[in-house]
Amino acid sequence: MTALAPAPSRPTPATPGHTPPVAAFTAFPDLTRFVLRRNWLRLAIWVIVLVGMVAMVYESQRVAFPTQESRDAYAAVANTPAVAALTGLPYGAGTLGGILNIKIWMTLAVSIGFASIFLLTRNGRAEEENGRTELIRAGAVGHHAYSLANQLVVGGLSVAIGLLIGLTCIGLGLPAEGSLAMGASIAGVGIAFLGIAALAGQLTSTSRAANSLASIVLGVSYLVRAIADVQAEGDTPSPLSWASPIGWAQNMRSFGENVWWPLLLLVGLGIGGCLVAGVIESRRDVGAGVLPDRPGPARATGSLASVLGLAVRLERGPMIGWLLGGLAGGLFYGGVASAMSDLLDSGNAYAKAFMGQADSVLDGIVGLFVMATAMVAAAFAVQSATSVRLEEASGRLEPQLAGAVSRTRWALTHYLVAAGWGIVILVASGLVFGLAFAASQSDPDQVPRILAASTAYIPSLLVLVGVTVLLTGWLPHQAILVSWIVYGASVIIAMFGPLFSLPDEVIDATPLAATPRVPGVELQAMPLVVLSLVALAFWALGLLRFRARDLTQA
Amino acid sequence: MNAASTPAIEVAGLVKRFGAVTALDGLDLRVEQGQVMGFLGPNGSGKSTTIRILLGIARADAGAARLLGGDPWREAVELHRRIAYVPGDVNLWPNLTGGQAIDILSRLRGGVDRTRRDELVERFDLDPGKKARTYSKGNRQKVALVAALASDAELLILDEPTSGLDPLMEGVFTDVVRELAHQGRSVLLSSHIFAEVEKLCDSVTIIRAGRTVEAGTLADLRHLHRTSVSVVLPGGAGTLARRADLHDLAVDGERVSFTVDDAELGGVLADLAARSPRSLVSTPPSLEELFLRHYGVELPATDDAAGAAVASKASAS
Ligand SMILES: Nc1ncnc2c1ncn2[C@@H]1O[C@H](COP(=O)(O)OP(=O)(O)O)[C@@H](O)[C@H]1O
Ligand SMILES: [Mg+2]
After folding, report:
1. Which of A25, A28, A135 best tests the B interface by mutation, with the highest count of B CBs <10 A?
2. For every one of its 554 residues, what pLDDT tens digit does chain A have, with 9 covering 90 and above?
3. What are the pocket residues of ligand 1 if the criterion is a CB atom closer than 6 Å to any ligand atom?
4. Rounded to whole angstroms, what are the CA distances from B293 to A540, B206, B298?
5. Rounded to whole angstroms, what are the CA distances from A19 to A259, A506, B74?
6. From the CA of B125, how many Å to the nearest CA of chain A?
7. Which residues of chain B does CATH 3.40.50.300 include?
8. Whose CA is nearest to atom 11 of ligand 1?
9. Among A193, A255, A289, A483, who pairs with A97 as Cys (CB 3.0-4.6 Å)?
10. Is A504 exposed, middle or buried (0-12, 13-18, 19+ CB in 10 A)?
């Protein structure tokens, strides 16, 4: 009774075949235009922010070091382990170009790395995850055309930013070769992480996992080069520097010796990553990752079937990942701070200026490092808080609320998980930092001091989460993007505010900079009280609006 | 090559595994040029997976698949110019309008026929100037339908295309597909709506757990199966109950209903004629019955079912 289809006359086994090279890229120009149209605003923002930062920092440094004597004086003291660890091994500090490098290069490199990762994933794995790639690929579109369009646009962003940075520096009167080397080294980092993001997008099957995987590679690259820079001999980094793509770009030494060949490594990693990604892509199904989805339990346990249980389960991976990241950071800073305590001369005028109003330079550095761990904790908290909007935008929230759950309780639970676990990360990394530092100094009193310094950032963290709460309530469609812009601006202003010649009132009005940098300065109650009140207001206003407004999907 | 004799779709022994899950387990499917083929199967039976392999966006582990005579993976680009696809769950770019999405999808196939597009936008009552994020599921579905149906594709691959459409729009969809079928286009229509398949398709392939369990024209399939008969006999069932070739016999006074294998129908009708029935309705099995029989569910031969089937008999014969 079963009528089978007759065997085809020329059966073709379904083994991986080879797409003719040209057909693999059919519709590439249309798709490139399409990717540009969907992303032009984001691309423009990255260009303006990164290139603008160079011009602003240059101007402030020109004012700060107007004479050659002032620059020579700075050069004599610039090479401290703290600077080396955070922003890269200083060299050529006697020139304005060298100073510009010290102040802004690392920030640009890390930012452009993130730009590549987030943009490539947004147009790549994220589109595949929500099924739109399937719609595109059902057209007369080559297997690789869409991926190549995406890679070309994101790679183009790096090239454009690098070129504009180079031209800006030349325009500001800096030496041409150094200017171009600086632009090229930044562009190189962007291209290298484009390759890494392309690979991450093939290995994982969700955009979140792709972003996390590539960001972890970026974080490890940063740490590896930080260790290499701290272990430098004079102004030559340890060979370990070559184990990190960021290290490769640093070794181009723009405004120093201007070494060009590491650019080949960076571009090679970018192109190599994209090629391997292309090979994987031609062997797998649209929508799938390399690893198949594993089956899970057929039933939800009692705790999972509650608002809190579900919120924790959905965030479980990031919660563990960010905690480990925070602990590693604490340990690392503890080690660096100890290494520095022997080297530091508290009469070092520049270091003093860089470290704020701290009496002891070492305390100032400890305060800076504590702030860095607070940034990690806050990054988790903000990411986790945006899950409220993500659940709403994806339409997954509606069926949950159709159950007997109040909107306010549902949202508050998610926000509390975000803030609560952010505080756990903050305190745990402060504790590890304190223990590592105390052990090396044989001074147990360091533990409570550093722990107190960490704890002081709790109100800041609540304000940053509060920004997301407020935006999710009032500006749902822009909430996630603007949350990250506010976070990024807070981080940059807290780290570099004085470099941009911003007035103190402005700097102190941002959440991270507002917290007193204990132990370098005294712990005052006033800023913490103000921050707490602001946080309370943001949370309350955001939740009230979230309760009152319509739910809207993406 | 001889285009007329090349089947539109030719799939044999297709196997697809996802880790430990075997989604397709030797599936066969054949759609001739100009044929409108219903592709039926319960949820998770492998319809979408088959379609994704035919579209060259997923890869089979074993077996053969040919689309319009070509290799779905290697010749994806040329083949996709000749086909159009509508997924069951359409996701659009939230900040583009429906009209923009239609044009983008059409262009990626190889061009838009503006008049045809506008005509379909009109018929489906779609507002193409709205951002996709404001569309309901049905409206998103219409966007993909307009893009596909406005094309000059030789073969339409439609994966549960009417999910989310209201009955009025389902009617429009049926009309448009009929028109395209008259023009000689081939259609693969995956569905679980029997009425839709019975209205549109000349053939069906029924699959279950990744295997083909039944394939053929609707008429053939009906022929292989039992006809339901509902009859009013003044003398009641009498000795009829002893006949071994009647199934599902139900007697309610003068009203007698049963099903009978088509091969035995002649003998049974002769017997009935001798009992001078006052009325007789015989109904070919509905697709729904065929389908459910494969999944172990027998429909009771009630008067309701028979009554409802009269109409379908009229339209089928
Ligand atoms: N990406 C995937 N990973 C794992 N299993 C899958 C995947 N896609 C489909 N399946 C499984 O394959 C089977 C067939 O699915 P599908 O083709 O979507 O069915 P249908 O379209 O007939 O409802 C189901 O059991 C489904 O769970
Ligand atoms: Mg399906």
Report:
1. A135
2. 344 444 444 434 444 445 555 678 888 999 999 999 999 999 999 999 999 999 999 998 898 889 999 898 888 877 777 778 888 898 888 899 999 999 899 999 999 999 999 999 999 999 998 889 989 999 999 989 999 999 999 999 999 999 999 999 999 999 999 999 999 999 999 999 999 999 999 998 888 889 888 988 998 899 889 888 888 888 888 888 999 999 999 999 999 999 999 999 999 999 999 999 999 998 888 878 776 666 777 777 767 777 888 888 888 888 988 899 899 888 888 877 776 665 555 455 545 555 555 566 678 778 888 998 999 999 999 999 999 999 898 888 887 877 777 889 899 999 999 999 999 999 999 999 999 888 888 888 889 999 999 999 999 999 999 999 999 999 999 999 999 999 999 998 888 777 777 888 888 899 999 998 888 788 889 999 999 999 999 999 999 999 888 888 77
3. A 288, 293; B 18, 21, 23, 41, 43-49
4. 59, 11, 6
5. 40, 57, 5
6. 22
7. 3-221
8. B23
9. A255
10. exposed
Yes or no: say if A7 and B63 are a contact pair by the CB < 8 Å rule: no
CATH homologous superfamily for the domain B3-221 = P-loop containing nucleotide triphosphate hydrolases (3.40.50.300)
Distance CA B313, CA B306 (A): 10
Taken in order A390, A395, A398, A400, the sign of the CA dihedral is negative
Strand partners, B226: B261
- Residue intervals of chain B classified under CATH 3.30.70 are 226-283
C-alpha B209 to ligand 1 mean position (Å): 10
Query: Tokens 């389902």 label which residue?
Result: B170
Q: Does A298 touch chain B (CB under 8 A)?
A: no
Fold of B226-283: Alpha-Beta Plaits (3.30.70)
